Amino acid sequence: MSLATPPPEHGGAALELLVHGVGGATPQSMLDDPRTVRITGDETAAVYRRAEDADAEDHPERYAARPVPEAYVWSNLTSGDGTRALWLLLLPFMVVNLAHWMRPPAQGRPRLARLYGVLVRLLALTLTVLLTAAVCEVALDLTAWQCAGTPACADGRAWLGFLAADRGGWWSVPGRRLALAALLPALLVGLLWYLSNRTWTAYEAQRPPTDDTAPEPADTTPPAPGVRSALGRPGFWYGRRLVARLRAAHTAAGLLTVAAALAAAPARQDTGTTAALGLALRTALVCCALLVLWVVCGRGRSERRLDPRLETALITWLPTAALTLLVLTAVHTGWARPGWTSTGTLPGNTVFGALTLVQGGLVVALGAVALLLQRRRRDPRTALAGLGGPATAMLACALGGVMSGGVAQRVADWLDGPATPGTDASPLVGPPVLLSWQASVIPLLLLLLIVPAALLGIRTALAARRLRATVEADYTGERPDPVRTGQIAASRARAALTDSAPVLIGVISAAALLLGAGAVAGAWTSGNVPGRAFAGATPALAALATTTQALGSWMIGFGFLLFVTWGRRAYRDASARRTIGILWDVGTFWPRAAHPFAPPCYAERAVPDLTWRMRSWTGHTGGRLVLSGHSQGSVLAAAAIWQLPAATRARVALLTYGSPLERLYGRWFPAYFGPEALRDLSRTVHCWANLHRATDPIGGPVRVPAEDGRPAVDAPALRDPVVYGRTRAHPLPEPVLGHSDYQADPAFAERRAALLDRLPPALPRQRADGGPAGEAADQSGSGRSSA
Questions:
Q1: What is the mean pLDDT of residues 481-497?
Q2: How many CA atoms are closer than 13 Å to the CA of 632, on its beta-carbon side?
Q3: How far is it, in rounded angstroms, from Cα 556 to Cα 281?
Q4: What is the pLDDT of residue 635?
Q5: Is 524 contained in some domain?
Q6: By residue range, what is the domain housing residue 719?
Q7: Which residue ranges does the record annotate as region Disordered (predicted)?
């Protein structure tokens, strides 16, 4: 296929590049044709056309009345692999990574912005330590130390026989049992490192286009205003250096956590030479931990330029040093010590309490920094008055806490059989007190959600009743139908629930902070003695806490079974993969700037793909291009527009529909999609139109007013359904479309045609000798292959 400029009399080709939204799509559904061909790309993400449009640039006379439709399909970036369903277990890491990007704008206050980033990265580090410590508690303390060291517990489990203290085997020595059990948390850390490294190679390693890698059209249009949004910086979508740096630090932190758990076990038993060796190992662990903190606090990337460097020595030697210390500590712990028996629990009951206090302090500090950043320029539509980031970070900590406490309590309940850990009838002392309190928090959190959920339900019902008059006014001249009016009004009321999300997040975060403080206080009043978790409470409170603890442990066990079930189903069912992938479409748009073990950022592949395609097509043809984005596709489209050079932007129009750019991203990520950023996007692109419906629960207006001779971006809200009752043209009732099928509305084609009319006419591509390039077409921009 030739992408050469057609003869001038035909005016050149126009292209509509379609970008789908959450949940994925097929090229056949996007192009409304079962016969499609792949123009460029691979099985993960590619650009498709109808088979009949494959050579559109050679026959522009066929497309005088409409643009050539082209579909960019990126659904396999998030939902193509069944293993992605297991990423649900990494939910706390993903949530804390979102908190990094939720900071308020920081014009003129770069130091506060850097402090905000440092606090979020430290919070992310505590989550890695918390997860590893929880697995150490399960593997080392509950299993290898308590259960294997107690004949009443080990005798009923054949798989623990070779570790049992009363068997007298080689592995029955307490230190050797612990060294062997340490393999489980160490392997978990290794698995996280492997997954992060593999996805980093597939996603973050995608290099964005630079000024010398794509041809530019011979355009004399004055350049567009300067791009002020951070998403337009050359290095924004190229975070491989930072991810590699953080991956090394978090891997080392996880391994050091395992080593610290091993080193603390024999500390009281060591004498003489073994005591000196133990002190040297603990000193080395502290020094390595300080190095990890230094690495995490460092910036590690520059967005203002494309940074291809990799700190090879750091990312290699830091995890290697931590692994070496872990091996040496395991050897030291496994050394036989006369008279050493496993009684009680391992040292370290205060570790979980210290982690909880550190996380609470970091969240409070993060809130203070967010308020200082928000004070200068407060936007009333910003979620939680600028505290969306701290609230989301608190959610990540709460998720990590309840998962850790619930898993530890569930394993303890499973190991001790019908008894309750910590009672006289149980062979186990039980998990640390704080984990028991955290497990008891889970049912309380669910109960707290019932009240705001009920209030929102009542408010939605009342709103649906009030909206009946508005619906009838929108369909003047129609015979009123109470059932039809109620259906449309209820759809509009339910769509408005999205705007109540900040209230729910705020309530949950505040409750999590208070309940976490209560758990720490409860553990402190009981003396941090396992088995006496609720000893300091009144009988009624102790009974309530014991009941909620049991419920919480069963709930977390059920949750993990549900995760595993979803994961197994996703291996076999493409629809299940697509459903689970919707979570990552929303949650993994942003780069991994806070936690390297979070699910990968698909935009670091999709945004360069779109940028490359637009630059190459306009550079080879000089034609007009409409970038058409639906839902999450509109967010990718906006990010790609910001990355374009001025000459390319002059030939591109933006059409968004069902777009969450302002309703979700503008409110929750004000530094990147706030009012100033969206106005900058309107000035940056040649022309922009946005379509929305009152029944859409995701999309909405972008609220960019008319300025400098440009019309307002938002079109009037589309009627949904288009037809109220039965007509001769529509003899059957039309459905309420909500977030889907915007192309079915006649206004879609009208807006697209208006955008094309506002774009400048096609330009002839110039040869090196200055003549027209119609005879010597450059074939390199095609890249077409059969699908």
A1: 94
A2: 24
A3: 36
A4: 96
A5: no
A6: 8-74+605-769
A7: 206-228, 755-787
State residue 108's pLDDT score. 77
Average pLDDT over residues 460-465: 95
* Alpha carbon 27 to its chain's center: 25
Q: Is residue 36 part of a domain?
A: yes
Whether 134 maps to a domain, the answer reads no
Tokens of 294: 């230094």
566's tokens: 């979803």
Identify whether 780 is part of a domain.
Answer: no
The CA distance from 313 to 347, in Å, is 35
Q: What is the pLDDT of residues 73-125, one digit of tens each?
A: 998 887 655 555 566 678 899 999 999 999 999 877 889 999 999 999 999 99
DSSP string, 462-514: HHHHHHHHHHHHHTTTSPP-HHHHHHHHHHHHHHGGGGGHHHHHHHHHHHHHH
39-48 residue pLDDT tens: 999 888 999 9
Give me the CATH number covering residue 38.
Answer: 3.40.50
Expressed in angstroms, the distance from the first to the final Cα of the chain is 15
The string of DSSP codes covering 360-373 is HHHHHHHHHHHHHH
Closest residue by Cα to residue 131 from 404, 402, 323, 363: 404
Helix (H) or strand (E) holding 348: none
All residues at 6 or more sequence positions from 514 whose CB lies less than 8 Å from its CB, including other chains: none
- Per the listing, tokens 């499973």 go with 414
HSE toward the beta carbon, residue 400, CA cutoff 13 A: 31
d(CA 207, CA 389): 29
Position 594 scores a pLDDT of: 94
Radius of gyration (C-alpha) of the chain in whole angstroms: 30
Cα-to-chain-centroid distance, residue 179: 35
pLDDT digits (tens, 9 = 90+) for 184-216: 999 999 999 988 888 777 666 667 665 444 444
What is the DSSP secondary-structure string of 564-581?
Answer: HHHHHHHHH-HHHHHHHH
